[in-house]
Amino acid sequence: MKTYHLEHLGDLDGLVLRDQEVPTPGPHEVLVRIRATSLNRRELMILNRTYPLPSKPNVIPVSDGAGEVVAVGTQVSRVAVGDRVAGSYFARWTEGKLTWDQMIQQLGCTLDGMLTEYALLDEQALVHLPDTLTFEEAATLPCAALTAWSALNGPDPIRPGDITGVLPGRTSAL
């Protein structure tokens, strides 16, 4: 399989394409054939060493991707071969308040990410895709959706009576 690794940070010359064997899932792991990925500002921050977390050496970059399950470990119960899935930005956060240990487990930074033909992920790091989304559409959601959710539910969640959105006459730029 073809897979990209960040051999060194600082510029795109550190992004190296490698040929590797397709991995075999362990008991709680899932092998996903990646069909689409999307880039976020975060990827540039990691590359340029401005992201708050250091990436693991030779990490497979990119947090956001979608694909289909092609193999599962013997104890996997959340997904099955043939399921359409996307990776979860915080790979170990499944519910409740986000802890530091969960926060630092991020695809494409401290864990291998999605810039590969086949991603080997823990079953907890996956979400099912609705049939209404293409792989390309779904690949744009993990980071963007988490950012939107965090804006509404972060340290100061919105409450009845709060005003959200863009003020009339103002524009916002991405």
UniProtKB/TrEMBL annotation:
Gene3D superfamilies: Medium-chain alcohol dehydrogenases, catalytic domain, NAD(P)-binding Rossmann-like Domain. It comes from the Bacteria. Residues 10-174 form the Enoyl reductase (ER) domain. GO terms for molecular function: oxidoreductase activity. InterPro entries: ADH-like_N (IPR013154), ER (IPR020843), GroES-like_sf (IPR011032), Zinc_ADH-like (IPR052711). This is Alcohol dehydrogenase GroES domain protein. It comes from Ktedonobacter racemifer DSM 44963.
